[in-house]
Amino acid sequence: MAEVVFFHHVQGLTPGIVAFADELRAAGHTVHTPDLFEGQTFASIEDGLAYVRSQPEGALDERADKAVASLPAEVVLGGTSFGAGQAQRLASTSTGAGILLESFVGPEWIQPWPEGVAAQVHGMDADPFFAEEGDLDAARAVASTRSDIEVFTYPGNVHLFSDSSLAAYDADAMGVVTSRVLELLAGL
Questions:
Q1: Strand-strand pairing, 76-80 and 98-101
Q2: Which residues on neighbouring strands pair with residue 76, listed in sequence order?
Q3: Is the dihedral of CA 37, 40, 46, 50 positive or negative?
């Protein structure tokens, strides 16, 4: 079974993030869900972004670094949106795999995903953040040169569809995401 660290999005460690982690746990995986916002959650993406911007430079990265410091190199790094960015930032420390939901940071902004480390990128095909701000294009460009990165899109135009505690939740799409993630983890 895999050991996974899964970082939350800008609305914080919501019940929906915990529910996804619980689904992975129910399949026998060990899943850590660090709370980078120290108990705070936000009603909107805008409020969460304001909190992120209000933090001292590097503070959230330091919290993420501490969350993985004692984990084995084989840990699977994952997250949703903001959390997927943290997973990508930490990718050089892992030989596990990646679960990147609703975000992908292009290699011009962050170190490239390590060669030979499998990753899945999931997002909606018309999500204003994922598809329209370039994440989807960047993920497809990187995946086109690599056999270890898969990009999956789902019909829709909302962000944070993967969080069952938010209004944007899409149960059908997330059912497919979860199935694909469990397949990835089973193959490790």
A1: parallel
A2: 4
A3: negative
User: Which pLDDT tens digit goes with each residue over 35-87?
Assistant: 999 999 999 999 999 999 999 999 999 999 999 999 999 999 999 999 999 99
What are the angstrom distances between the C-alpha of 157 and each of 112, 160, 161, 165, 168?
A: 27, 10, 9, 18, 9
DSSP state of 48: H
| Amino acid identity at 9 | H
Strand, coil or helix: what is 51? helix
Cα distances from 23 to residues 20, 27, 114, 175, 179, in angstroms, run 5, 7, 27, 11, 10
Question: DSSP assignment of 63-93, as one string?
Answer: HHHHHHTTS-TTPEEEEETHHHHHHHHTGGG
Q: Taking the alpha carbons of 8, 13, 16, 19 in that order, is the dihedral positive or negative?
A: positive
pLDDT tens for 73-105 read: 999 999 999 999 999 999 987 889 999 999 999
Q: How many CA atoms within 13 Å lie on the side-chain side of 79?
A: 28
* Number of other residues whose CB lies within 10 A of the CB of residue 62: 12
Burial of 166 (0-12, 13-18, 19+ CB in 10 A): buried
Query: Both ends of the chain: CA-CA distance in Å?
Result: 8
Rg (CA), the chain: 15
Rounded distance between C-alpha atoms, residue 50 and residue 179, angstroms: 33
